[in-house]
Amino acid sequence: MSEKHEEWLKQADYDMGTADAMFTSGRYLYAVFMCHLSIEKSLKGLFSKELVEVPPKTHNLIYLLKKIGKKPHKDMLKFITKLNTASVATRYPDDLSKIQAAYTKEITKEMIEKSKDVLKWVNEQF
User: Fold this and answer.
1) Distance between CA 12 and CA 6 in Å, rounded?
2) Fewer Cβ close by (within 10 Å): the C or N end of the chain?
3) pLDDT digits (tens, 9 = 90+) for 35-47
4) Euclidean distance between CA atoms 55 and 32, whole angstroms
5) Is the pTM above the cut of 0.85?
6) What is the number of domains present in the chain?
7) What's the average model confidence in pLDDT over 27-52?
């Protein structure tokens, strides 16, 4: 694995740690945001390895998966789609109190756990 791949994965792990820290501090919106960022970076590392190209400047996880040509199992893909949708809402919330109500402690905890499963799956693709 080249240094570029390692750097993407190192940052993905760091961002997942940040998601945990945001969860612990009660900043659930940002925990979800960091989950998305972590998965995005891990997929960009896989993109770089598989296609031997600089990954595109996109936040779209589904687009990255399609370009890479990898398909996780059905439930994981469903979660990635959900996380992909959460990206815009957590990045640019129209109504802070509404988005905070949507990402409760329980929902955010589950999203972190599932994000860690995705991160593990991506790492297994290397």
Assistant:
1) 10
2) N
3) 999 999 999 999 9
4) 22
5) yes
6) 1
7) 97
